[in-house]
Amino acid sequence: MTRTVQARGIPSLRSWSGVEVALAAVLLALAGISWLLSAVLGMPEMRMGLLTGTGQAEMSGGPAPFALFLAVWVVMMAAMMLPAITPFTIGVSRLVRARRKRGVLPSLTLGYLLVWTAAGVAAWAILRGFDAIDHSGTSVRVGAVVLLVAGAYEFSPLKRWCLVRCRSPLALVVKHGDTVVRGRLGLGALRVGVHHGGYCLGCCWALMVVLLAVGAMNLLWMAVLAAVIAMEKVLPRAEIVSSALGAVLIGAGVVLLIAPGLLAPMA
Q: pTM for this structure?
């Protein structure tokens, strides 16, 4: 087991140095703070979605609501994703310390979050589209289609391709190691963070759309999806997790297409 984990580039916990433990603690502390902020900053209309009932007020348009949504979205992504990228960050930490290079890890995390910030723009557009849907049985059927698409994506070659690269951070570190340590002002680390964030987005975009459909700021669903994402990235047989998740999503989608009344009273 240890060899398998180390081969993926996720160092065994027993091999972590005090500096690496401290780094992991910082990332997890930031994630914890982000969870608290998600609970405090969450807009009421973001706590419910197509499949869990509509909020009391729809998402209003304009620059100010969009900016607020994007800020909250980034906090959400930090809460959900920082624990999952801790192994990758530890791998890069070992590389930069071996090359006696400092100051790149904040740029690495920033590059990762920049990808999810860009994804927040698309998430805003999706939410606006959801608001335009008649909140009755129609909204449940649209939510069912979202579940079906997300479930089917779990079985797709693109999902597996991105997941393999997301689960093998060492490959990215080795490939772009010189970019990390030679880039000025942390730009090399920023680029590598963007690369890793792109693979993660490729793995998780469909699940994020599901989150929008059940309630983007619903802490329970955030926690469920964060746990699933972490399992896909860390457990030895991630394909089993993906297949099981895909089957559950497709099954739920089929049931709701056939019997939207199961949730219609809530919508």
A: 0.80
